[in-house]
Structures
1.
Amino acid sequence: MKKPNILLIYKRSALSMAGKISGRLHNSRKFLDNHLAHYEALRSIEKILKKYDVPYKKYARGAFEDYSPYDVIVTVGGDGTVLHAARWVNRRQIILGVNSDPSWSVGEFCCTDAARFELKLKNLLCHKLKTCRLYKLQIRLKDGHRTRRAECLNDILICHANPGAMSRYALTIGGIKEDQRDSGIWFSTAAGSTGAMLSAGGKAMPISSTDFQYHPRELYQVKGVPYRLPGGFVKRPRKAVLVSFMPHGRVFVDGAHIKFPFTYGSRAEISLSSNFVQLVHD
C-alpha cells in the first residue's frame, strides 16, 4: 500500500519569534512553557512519522507555499496554522491539524494533539480517517486599475485603518443597498462563525453550511432610520458588495497576516468560493 506523502507545517512559538526571554515579557513563564510544549510535540510527531516510515518534509509556517506535491498536510500549532495551510491546499488534499499545546491554543480546527497523533496516523494509513468539507470565502477587491483576489477559510474584516475611527461604506446584498457607519464589518464562513463573528454578536452556523454570514460592528444609529442590512446570512450564489467611503480603509483576511488597502472608491465583492478544504475531524 502506497504511503501518503506528508507536508509537516509548524508554527514558530511566540517565544522563538521574540528571540529571547525578556524580563519585561508579561507572564514569561507561560511563554516558556508553551515554547517547550510546542517543540516537544513537534519532535514527538516527527518521531512517529519516522517510526512508520512515512515520507515527509518539514517547514515553518510561511516558509513554504508549494503544497501541490503532497497528499496530506499535517499542521502543528493551533487554528492559525490550519488557516494558513488552508490557503494553499487543493480539493484532493486533506489537512490534519495537531494542537501542539491545548493549554495555549483553542484548536477548533485541530482533530488531535501530540499524544493521540499516532492513532490518527494509523487510521490515515488504513484509510479510516473521516473528513468534513469546509467551504472558503473569496474576495475580489478592485482599487483603481488594480484587482486583488484572496480566499480564506475563516473570516474577513473590513474597517478603517485606525481602530478608533468610524468605518464608512456602501453595502449591497440581494438588491438592497445602504450606506453604513460603524466600527467595521465581519464576514465569515460557517467554519469561522464560532470565532470573532460569534464574539461580535453573530450566530454560530452548522459547519457544513454553504451560506456565509455578515455582521456590522456597532452600527451608528440614526434616529428614526432603521438599517435594512444589520447582519445575517447570504445564500449561495449571492454576494456582498462594498464600496469604500474611507480614505484609509483596510481589508483583513483570516486575521492580520493578509491585508489590503480599501481606500475611497475601492470596491469589494465577497462570496462563497467553489473551493473547499477537506479537514480531518474527530
Note: Residues 44 and 114 are 7 Å apart (CA to CA).
2.
Amino acid sequence: MYLFVYGTLRKHGSNHQLIKNEELIASQAWSKGNLYDSEKGFPYFIQKGPKRVYGEVYKISNEKLNEIKNLKYSDSKDQTLYQQSTVTVMTDILGEIECVTFINSEEQAVGLFPLTYGDWLVHLEIERDDHTYFAYGSCMDNERFKLADVDHLFTNKIGGGLTDRLEMNYSLSVHDGGRANLIETGKQGEGVLYQVNKEAVEYLFMREGVYNGTYRPAIIDVMVNGRLYEKSLTFIVLDPVKECAPPIHYATEIIRGSKGTVSPEYHSKLIDDLKTKFNLSMAES
C-alpha cells in the first residue's frame, strides 16, 4: 500500500528510521487539509479545508503499517492520538493516488494555528539564521541580483549541485511565457547551491512570489562535489501547468548563470531542451 507521511516519519524526521528502508514513491506530494504544530514535537493533520499538507509517499507492507500504528508519542499513551484514514494525494510522478495516513480530530487543534506553508520541515527549518539555497532557474544568474542591489547576499556560491528525483522544467506560465519549476521525475537534476542569510531568504520570498501564492518554499537535499547538503531551501511552483516557452531574456539568464558551475553535460542539456521543446536557439557562449 502507499503511505503518506507529513511529520516525524518524513526524511530528517525523528521517527524516519522506521521507514527509511521502504520504497520512496514521491518526495514532493500533498493532500488537502491543514497542518498544525501540536507544540509537542509533532504535527496534527486535520483532513478539512482547502489548504495543502505536504509530505512524502512510501510503499509499505501491512507489517510495517502495524509497526507505525504502535508508535508512542511522548505526551500520550492514548493510541487514539491519531486515527488511520485514506486520503487522496497529488504527486508529480503518479498523479492522483490513494494513500493510507494518520489524521487528527478538529478538537485536537483547537487554539492552534495552521502552518503557513503546510510543510512540517519548512516550519522547523525556515527561521534558521543561515541556509543553503538551491537555485535551478534564473537565480543561477546574478544580473537581477545586481539590479535589486542584493548581489552581495549571493556571493557565497558553494558550487553546482545535484538533486535526487527532481528536475527543472518550464511549467509556470506568466504573461510573457514560461518560468522554471522543479518537478519530481525520479531522475537527477542540477543547479547552483548558495550559502545565504536571512536577508537573502527574505528577498527570495519576495522575488519568487511566495506571498502571492506563485511558489512555495521546500526543503531538499543537494549534493555538491560528493558532499551532501541536507535540508537545503528551494522554491517550487504551487500550481504547475503544461510547459511553455520562456522569453529569451529569461532563458539567457538560465544559460548564462549555469555555465561553468553545473556540469558541461547539463549545461548542454539546458540549451538542447530549449531547442527541442520550444525551437529556441541559444549559443553555448
Note: The CA atoms of residues 49 and 222 lie 33 Å apart.
3.
Amino acid sequence: MKNYIFSSLLFLSLFITAALQADVLAEYTFTDSSFASTDASTSWTTSDLGNGVGLPLTVSATEGNPAPGIEITFGGFDYADLSASLVANGYYSFTITPDAGTELTFTDLTFEMYKQSGATATVSATIFSSIDGFATTGDAIGAGELVGGGEQSGFFLGRTVVLSSLPTVSTATEFRIYLDDGGANNSSNEFRLDNIVLNGTASVIPEPSSILLMLGASLVFMVTARRRIK
C-alpha cells in the first residue's frame, strides 16, 4: 500500500513542477547582423539585444566567432571602472519574459570576448539583472575579464557568469552587460563580443483546476489499489 501512495504522490509532484525541455533561454549570435535571440520557445519571449546611451551597438559582418559579431573601439566604452560605466549607462541588455504559468530558473550567462593585439588594458564585462537592480557596483552578479597584455592573443575567449544566486522568476527580467576598459581610451584598439547565451530551465505551473483534477485522480488510484489489496 505504501508503494501505491508513494507512486501517486510522486506522480502528482512531477506534474505540478513539470520541467520544459529547454536549457537555452536566450541566445544572441548576430546571424545576418540581427540583434534578435535565436532561441525557439513557446513558453517565454526574449527581446532583441539593445544598448544604453553610453555604449554603441554595432555589428561587424566580418568579425565574430563566427562572424558577424559586435565590434567597437576602446574609445566607445572608455570608462575607468564599473562605477563610471554605471553612471554613463554603458551596457548591452535584453529582457526575457515568461508566459503566464511559467517560471524561469537561471543557471549562467556565457559570452565570448576578443581584444585586438596590442591593447594592454584590462577589459571587464560585468553582469547585472533587474532582480538586484543596476544602481551600484554591489548589485553586480559577476564579471568576465580580458586581463592586460596577458589576453590579447587575437582570438575569442569564453567567459561564464554563474546566476545561481538569482531566485526563480515568473515576471519579465532584464539582464545588462556593462563594459569598461580601465580608462585606456585608445580608439585604435578594438573590442569584440559574440555568442551571448542565457542558460537555465523553465517550469510549467498548472492551473488550480488541473491540480485538483490530478489530485482527485490520485485519490481514486489509491482507493482502488487499497480495495485490490483487501
Note: The radius of gyration is 23 Å.
